[in-house]
Specification:
Layout: H1 2-17, E1 22-26, H2 28-37, E2 39-49, E3 58-61, E4 65-68, E5 76-82, E6 88-92, E7 95-99, E8 107-114, E9 122-129, E10 132-134, E11 137-139, E12 142-149, E13 155-162, E14 169-180, H3 185-203
Helix pairs in contact: 1-3
């Protein structure tokens, strides 16, 4: 009965929240479920890098793969854009690449990985999407995820990437997946996220 009530209340909240950016926390299981049913239209990946200038620290994959070397600042300003004309781009510092996504986009997943030795962490902070704040992501010998939906036809994601000070190669990794989640899966994910939040609040 409680689940049914939460479901009905959630439906009302979804109606009221229509047009507002939705931000959902994911764990490894829900991330796997979303990715298994979605089409990745664009992927931007940033890794710590090696000392050699031949390594490609930033990659944008759309209808082709564009990669470039980058020497990270601490922190590094990162910006991911998806515009109404269908272009996806990644900017790290002054470096910029743009490509044409393979399909539509109705969700953005941020994945932060850390596998560097020691107790230091990889972080992605001061995040906004279309001006809406997103919680900071934190990973220390693990992974943190967040999914963003209901942002309309454009994405303007900004944040500060703090690589693990002990990392090398790909031990600090920040990835953006611009995906198309088949309907009604995207609505269902939002619904489940809100229902879970309501149930957690009822326990207190």
């Amino acid at each position: 009965m409680k689940l049914l009530m939460a479901f009905l209340v959630s439906l009302g909240i979804l109606d009221l929240a229509e047009g507002a950016v939705q931000i959902s926390n994911l764990d490894a299981s829900s991330y796997g479920s979303v990715m298994s049913t979605s089409t990745v239209s664009a992927k931007a990946e940033m890794v710590t890098g090696f000392s050699s200038s031949s390594s490609m620290e930033v990659t944008l994959t759309t209808n082709s793969t564009l990669a470039f070397s980058h020497v990270w600042s601490m922190p590094e300003d990162v910006r991911f854009l998806y515009d109404a004309a269908g272009n996806a781009s990644i900017r790290t510092g002054s470096s910029f690449r743009e490509g044409q996504p393979l399909g539509g986009v109705n969700a953005l997943i941020i994945k932060l990985d850390d596998s560097a030795p020691g107790s230091f962490a990889t972080e992605f902070k001061n995040i906004t999407i279309n001006g809406v704040p997103v919680r900071n992501l934190f990973a220390s010998d693990g992974t943190d995820y967040v999914m963003i939906t209901n942002f309309g036809s454009t994405v303007d994601l900004k944040g500060a990437f703090y690589k693990n000070v002990a990392s090398a190669g790909n031990e600090s990794r920040l990835t953006f997946f611009a995906v198309s989640i088949p309907e009604p899966s995207s609505s269902l994910m939002c619904l489940l996220s809100i229902s879970a939040t309501l149930l957690r609040r009822r326990r207190y």
